[in-house]
Write a sequence for this structure.
């Protein structure tokens, strides 16, 4: 292979394909990642997403971060569809940091498909158009007499064929077209058909390198002891015993940070093996100043919530009509509570950093790499341009790696050592120092009219806001905790909702289904509660407030979302039908329903859960049925994975997930005390996908929020309604 | 530092390690066999499951000094190319989401089927409930185990 002088045609071409100015095929000069050093037309790389070599092997670079949600498969499928590639020739690789605009790496909010669908289609279509032009030039015919088919260009007159690999050199010389024609979705061959995960075999043979598995030359290991109370500080450390542990190289201390990531003051042991560091850490003798907020506990927090629940909310969130006219009239009230939760990815947090003079290289899994790098630069004093970022696969994320506290720590530690350092969080650290899903509490009040319709609805959400942590206590942003808002799906004429923030000294963060999960449990429980009180069928009662309600916008301007009560009704009906809602139930069998939307991700889902009561508070889940409408489905197998996973996540929360805090310290220290759903607890599930032609939505989060209310509604049908999660605390057990 | 001879994936290794170092860290940090995962270090998740003399064991619970003269198989050595019936079944069922726990899941299932070609549902439940998966791939694990059972009994 001959390395030639760089021909500018071999650089990734800069092109702006959409009229909206979205740059695809973007390369920042000076970045090493995909900067091609022009191997004598070994491959064709028309943009940042596609590289085709002479053998016809296609590499698709996916710019969203993979943590199990399947972007490494669904995103390449979109490219391959428009490229008319043979998917067996496609290999998926992480798009190196810097090869696309920084924010495009951001991964969260179930936005990967929504955010990338149009631009990846265009990227694939551009490459295909260039390959067709190249073939047309070879055949000396018009491109209009050529077609693409399964990795080859076909001369539609002579039916000759040239494989893409054979067109690489010619295609690379062509200008990138500004306009391309996209396929009619009815001609899709790949999108909509199940594909197994790319890179599956590497996972099954242990070859996949997650962050924790990477070895950088010369790398050493670190674990850290952190201030047990958030906001406390290090007074002194006696590290004499720790330093005597064989393999220990150095003990360093570092200062914590405030918002946005709330790194605690820490003392890290750097050693030649993780084990030596873990052992030595136990021998550190540290004196901490815990600060003033060292006596908070969750028991008191929930008492505080309950004490304020009936007061007027501190912040009004949404108002429609006049609820005050109905106060005290035919009224039902209920209170619901949900605890702090941890993400508990099986791969604990970890990060590698190497600092040399004024520059730094980092390796790890990050859902928001751009924000992380900007913050690391601000905290470390290293210029952003001097930080080289290597994005790695994540052994689970669920929102945990939207936060990058561990990355800041790794850089602070590496700044004090002359070799690359991998910071490893032990399981106890991961359980005790995470940004937790906020604890929350709900006071709901509704009045019904003489016809048995809900005439007024009030919802007071109390919580420990995430924004207080990321933005500080003066923030006006209540975002993730705002309860029933402008997108509230049920047709009720008078609504008032509000929020009361309560601060608490523990870090909070985004967990899969963030605010949707917080609000769906109380709303779908309370709707059910009203139906039962009115002796109405919970299915028909919901449908009466959904089915005839037209789609509506949640606000003004470009940020407004569209809510579709009809789509929420449709998934509910589907789930109810498939579980046999209208059929006679076996003795002691009960069914609960819940439905909702995640309109930010343009997706709608419902759950129906059938249980058998074995004893007054002991049950068995007989069957779960989920129904989902997420518009056009890219990879049905990936969708099923997310729905199956959402069920497990939702059941963990419903049954046993809970972080409690005493003296500002988390009581749980790992999987024995913060239990996850286990294999033998997974109930049978059926997942039904609506045949939707709507634009594709995101499915990472929509599959879990209705699990807990559906289960609780089944338990309510059996006689006792749990109003707080996890239900284990209300004395329930299950087999 | 003490020296230990280990047989891992039918290869002899000599490692220099403190005698209380768990096999997990020997494999990962000293031998660069990172397919065996760290999840908890306290036998609560099963991510570090390896096969030792035919039995599934937690690599985090075995100090290196107790691993001498044992035949240790890790995910890297279960087959050369992913062709072990359990790996093939995992492929067919498309089990992984993030995939991090799957080497441990596969080793637990392989050890079970290595000892019992037709395990009862109760035994499968009991065995596999020791391995956590946060992504929630349990349905597919179940499907894969049954594919593997069918395969090895053909």
């Amino acid at each position: 292979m001959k390395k030639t002088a760089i021909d500018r045609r071999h650089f990734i071409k800069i092109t702006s394909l959409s009229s909206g100015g979205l740059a695809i095929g973007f390369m920042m000069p000076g970045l090493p990642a995909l900067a091609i050093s022009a191997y004598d037309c070994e491959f064709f790389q028309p943009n940042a997403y596609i590289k085709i070599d002479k053998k016809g092997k296609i590499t698709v670079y996916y710019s969203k971060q993979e943590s199990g949600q399947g972007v490494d498969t669904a995103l390449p499928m979109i490219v391959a569809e428009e490229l008319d590639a043979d998917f067996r020739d496609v290999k998926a690789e992480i798009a190196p940091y810097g090869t696309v605009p920084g924010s495009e790496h951001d991964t969260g909010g179930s936005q990967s498909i929504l955010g990338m669908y149009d631009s990846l289609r265009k990227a694939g279509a551009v490459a295909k158009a260039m390959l067709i032009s190249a073939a047309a030039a070879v055949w000396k015919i018009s491109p209009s007499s050529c077609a693409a088919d399964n990795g080859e260009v076909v001369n539609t007159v002579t039916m000759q064929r040239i494989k893409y690999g054979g067109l690489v050199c010619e295609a690379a010389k062509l200008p990138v077209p500004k306009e391309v024609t996209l396929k009619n979705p009815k001609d899709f061959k790949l999108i909509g058909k199940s594909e197994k995960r790319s890179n599956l075999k590497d996972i099954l043979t242990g070859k996949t390198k997650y962050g924790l598995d990477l070895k950088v030359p010369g790398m050493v290991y670190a674990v850290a002891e952190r201030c047990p109370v958030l906001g406390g500080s290090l007074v002194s450390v006696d590290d004499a015993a720790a330093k005597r542990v064989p393999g220990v190289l150095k003990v360093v201390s570092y200062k914590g940070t405030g918002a946005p990531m709330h790194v605690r003051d820490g003392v890290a042991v750097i050693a030649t093996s993780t084990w030596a560091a873990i052992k030595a850490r136990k021998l550190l003798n540290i004196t901490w100043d815990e600060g003033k907020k060292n006596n908070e506990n969750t028991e008191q927090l929930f008492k505080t919530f309950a004490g304020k629940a009936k007061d007027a909310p501190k912040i009004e969130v949404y108002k429609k009509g006049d609820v005050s006219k109905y106060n005290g009239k035919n009224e039902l009230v209920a209170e619901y509570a949900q605890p702090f939760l941890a993400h508990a990815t099986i791969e604990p947090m970890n990060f590698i950093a190497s600092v040399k003079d004024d520059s730094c290289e980092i390796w790890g899994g990050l859902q928001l790499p751009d924000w992380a790098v900007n913050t690391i630069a601000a905290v470390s004093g290293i210029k952003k341009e001097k930080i080289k970022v290597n994005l790695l696969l994540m052994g689970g994320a669920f929102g945990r790696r939207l936060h990058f506290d561990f990355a800041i720590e790794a850089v602070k530690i590496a700044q004090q050592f002359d070799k690359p350092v991998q910071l490893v969080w032990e399981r106890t650290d991961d359980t005790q120092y995470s940004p937790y899903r906020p604890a929350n509490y709900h006071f709901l009040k509704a009045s019904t009219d003489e016809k048995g319709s809900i005439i007024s609805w009030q919802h007071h959400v109390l919580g420990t806001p995430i924004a207080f942590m990321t933005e500080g206590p003066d923030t006006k942003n209540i975002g993730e905790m705002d309860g029933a808002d402008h997108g509230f799906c049920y047709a009720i004429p008078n609504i008032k909702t509000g929020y009361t923030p309560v601060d608490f000294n523990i870090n909070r963060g985004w967990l899969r289904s963030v605010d949707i999960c917080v609000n769906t449990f109380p709303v779908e429980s309370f709707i059910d509660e009203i139906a039962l009180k009115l002796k109405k069928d919970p299915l028909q009662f919901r449908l009466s407030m959904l089915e005839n309600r037209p789609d509506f916008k949640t606000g003004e301007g470009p940020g407004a979302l569209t809510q579709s009560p009809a789509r929420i009704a449709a998934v509910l009906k589907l789930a109810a039908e498939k579980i046999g809602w209208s059929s006679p139930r076996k003795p002691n069998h009960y069914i609960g329903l819940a439905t909702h939307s995640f309109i930010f991700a343009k997706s709608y889902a419902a759950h129906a859960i059938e249980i058998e009561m074995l004893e007054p508070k002991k049950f068995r889940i007989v069957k779960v049925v989920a129904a989902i409408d997420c518009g056009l489905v890219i990879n049905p197998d990936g969708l099923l994975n997310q729905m199956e996973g959402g069920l497990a996540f939702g059941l963990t929360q419903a049954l046993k997930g809970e972080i409690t805090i005493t003296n500002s310290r988390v009581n749980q220290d790992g999987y024995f005390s913060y239990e996850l759903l286990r294999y033998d607890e997974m109930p049978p599930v059926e997942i039904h996908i609506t045949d939707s032609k709507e634009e594709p939505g995101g499915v990472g989060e929509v599959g879990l929020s209705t699990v807990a209310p559906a289960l609780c509604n089944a338990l309510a049908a059996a006689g006792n309604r749990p109003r707080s999660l996890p239900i284990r605390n209300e004395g329930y057990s299950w087999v | 530092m003490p020296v230990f001879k280990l047989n891992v994936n039918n290869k002899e290794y000599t490692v220099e390690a403190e005698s209380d170092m768990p096999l997990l860290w020997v494999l990962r940090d000293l031998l660069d066999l990172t397919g065996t995962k760290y999840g908890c270090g306290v036998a609560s998740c099963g991510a570090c499951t390896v096969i030792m003399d035919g039995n599934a064991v937690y690599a985090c619970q075995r100090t290196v000094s107790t691993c001498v003269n044992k035949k240790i198989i890790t995910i890297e050595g279960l087959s050369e190319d992913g062709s072990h019936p359990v790996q093939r079944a995992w492929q067919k069922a498309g089990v992984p989401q993030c995939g991090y726990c799957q080497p441990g899941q596969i080793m637990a299932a392989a050890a079970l089927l290595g000892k019992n070609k037709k395990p009862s549902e109760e035994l499968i439940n009991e065995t596999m409930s020791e391995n956590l998966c946060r992504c929630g791939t349990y349905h597919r694990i179940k499907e894969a185990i049954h594919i593997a059972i069918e395969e090895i009994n053909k």
